[in-house]
Amino acid sequence: MTLPRTPHAVVFDMDGLIFNTEAIYRDAAIAAAAEAGYLLPLDFYLATIGLPGEATRMLFGELFGNKFDFDSFWTDATQRFHQATLSQLYLKAGVIELLDLLDELQLPRAIATSSRREDAQHHLTSHGLLDRFHAVVAHGDYTRGKPNPDPFLMAADKLGVEPAQCLALEDPYTASARHPVPA
User: Fold this and answer.
1) Element (H, E) at 169
2) Overall pTM > 0.85
3) For 114, what's the count of Cα atoms within 13 Å in the CB-facing half-sphere?
4) For a 10 Å CB count at each end of the chain, is N or C smaller?
């Protein structure tokens, strides 16, 4: 593969690209809904990825009705996610090799994630990767989350590289396919 220009830095998404967190979160949300007595269709869940918290809350209300307790569901799904990451979190294939190559090329790199800073730091630290990134931009660091470019623009700024000179790496989902973070 040939790039249109040589990048001066690389900005990574984290969930689904570096770690298998998106599958863990999906399973946690489906299990939390089932525990509450609701069937959460996979296509519905996938359609909510990347939406702002209030939009996600509204769609769940439309699907399950006014009696659906979104806050309890979200708390349960989040707890299940955190518990599952203790034993099920793994690196995606090729991550270490790519980071080794970027070290050889002396290219700075950053994380631009929709995840909370605590989660990003935990996941990166638990796999010995935190010091392999020169910056981490996480939920709460920017005004507008993905699919808006704000996280990537902030990461480029923290690296001191013009955004047009960065290579942005995303997971296989579309740019709007992010797990929602409730407001």
Assistant:
1) strand 166-169
2) no
3) 28
4) N
